[in-house]
């Protein structure tokens, strides 16, 4: 049951409510009840969406207002779907990946726990302090870009002037080691060796948000970004240690690192 964030996202989209994705993920995953129905209730309250949890029955499924969150039980665990359309013949809902799924009403009710979270948008619905959150997020991104540019200029100057080469080499090695740490966490989490709570890269970023992003797989899903990044950082550390004095190698790795940041 790890689709709470996606359900809230799709709910806000349905109500055309603006939100900051990083703030939303942090709010949901830091909830003491995460992942559970209570976590969804608390988040809806925070965003000013009127909600009420009910226990109903299959005969009244068609009376449930749209959109509503329904709890299902499948593969020995609870999950949530966002109801988009329902009648006597079929049900259309958004699944755990946010994809629209159409299923016969009879088959859907086989997994439905008959628990529903009714939702209603009000004039007070919206993300708290969304303007401030967006400004802070934008500022963080700008600072990262500025830092990458300054490091690149410094590295290029050291390469051309043959100055501060060893200090640059040390800094570059530290960056690579940090890259290995992050990519190792991604690999371990992807293979279910460590849980989500031990795989937080920052307060607003965890392994799930990276591995589930559209950039996590390249070449039509044949290459996994976590494996590729781990191989890249390990290889560059080996190259740095073996060929420490190579100006050309350090300059080449600098260019690759810049491209990696941009990607």
From TrEMBL:
<dbReference type="GO" id="GO:0048038">
    <property type="term" value="F:quinone binding"/>
</dbReference>
<feature type="domain" description="Peptidase C39">
    <location>
        <begin position="1"/>
        <end position="119"/>
    </location>
</feature>
<feature type="transmembrane region" description="Helical">
    <location>
        <begin position="142"/>
        <end position="160"/>
    </location>
</feature>
<dbReference type="GO" id="GO:0005524">
    <property type="term" value="F:ATP binding"/>
</dbReference>
<keyword id="KW-0560">Oxidoreductase</keyword>
<dbReference type="GO" id="GO:0016491">
    <property type="term" value="F:oxidoreductase activity"/>
</dbReference>
<dbReference type="Pfam" id="PF03412">
    <property type="entry name" value="Peptidase_C39"/>
</dbReference>
<keyword id="KW-0812">Transmembrane</keyword>
<dbReference type="GO" id="GO:0008233">
    <property type="term" value="F:peptidase activity"/>
</dbReference>
<dbReference type="InterPro" id="IPR038354">
    <property type="entry name" value="VKOR_sf"/>
</dbReference>
<keyword id="KW-0472">Membrane</keyword>
<dbReference type="Pfam" id="PF07884">
    <property type="entry name" value="VKOR"/>
</dbReference>
<protein>
    <recommendedName>
        <fullName>Peptidase C39 domain-containing protein</fullName>
    </recommendedName>
</protein>
<comment type="similarity">
    <text>Belongs to the VKOR family.</text>
</comment>
<dbReference type="GO" id="GO:0006508">
    <property type="term" value="P:proteolysis"/>
</dbReference>
<dbReference type="InterPro" id="IPR005074">
    <property type="entry name" value="Peptidase_C39"/>
</dbReference>
<dbReference type="GO" id="GO:0016020">
    <property type="term" value="C:membrane"/>
</dbReference>
<keyword id="KW-1015">Disulfide bond</keyword>
<dbReference type="InterPro" id="IPR012932">
    <property type="entry name" value="VKOR"/>
</dbReference>
<feature type="transmembrane region" description="Helical">
    <location>
        <begin position="166"/>
        <end position="188"/>
    </location>
</feature>
<keyword id="KW-0874">Quinone</keyword>
<keyword id="KW-0676">Redox-active center</keyword>
<keyword id="KW-1133">Transmembrane helix</keyword>
<feature type="transmembrane region" description="Helical">
    <location>
        <begin position="232"/>
        <end position="259"/>
    </location>
</feature>
């Amino acid at each position: 049951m790890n689709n709470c964030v996606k359900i809230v996202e799709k709910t806000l989209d349905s109500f055309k409510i603006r939100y900051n994705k990083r703030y939303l993920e942090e709010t949901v995953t830091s909830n003491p009840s995460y992942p559970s129905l209570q976590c969804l209730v608390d988040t809806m309250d925070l965003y000013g969406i009127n909600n009420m949890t009910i226990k109903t029955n299959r005969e009244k499924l068609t009376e449930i207002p749209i959109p509503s969150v329904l709890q299902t039980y499948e593969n020995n665990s609870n999950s949530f779907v966002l109801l988009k359309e329902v009648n006597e013949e079929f049900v259309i809902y958004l699944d755990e990946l946010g994809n629209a799924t159409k299923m016969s009403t009879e088959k859907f009710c086989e997994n439905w726990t008959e628990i529903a979270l009714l939702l209603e948008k009000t004039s007070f619905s919206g993300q708290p302090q969304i303007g401030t959150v967006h400004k802070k997020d934008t500022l963080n991104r700008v600072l990262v870009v500025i830092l990458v540019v300054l490091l690149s200029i410094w590295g290029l100057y050291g390469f051309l002037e043959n100055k501060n080469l060893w200090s640059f080499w040390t800094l570059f090695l530290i960056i690579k080691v940090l890259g290995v740490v992050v990519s190792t966490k991604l690999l371990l989490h992807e293979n279910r060796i460590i849980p989500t709570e031990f795989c937080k890269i920052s307060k607003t970023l965890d392994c799930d948000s990276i591995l589930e992003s559209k950039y996590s797989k390249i070449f039509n899903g044949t290459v996994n970004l976590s494996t590729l990044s781990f191989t890249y950082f390990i290889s560059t550390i080996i190259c740095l240690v073996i060929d420490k004095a190579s100006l050309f190698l350090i300059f080449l790795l600098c260019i690759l690192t810049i491209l990696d940041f941009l990607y």
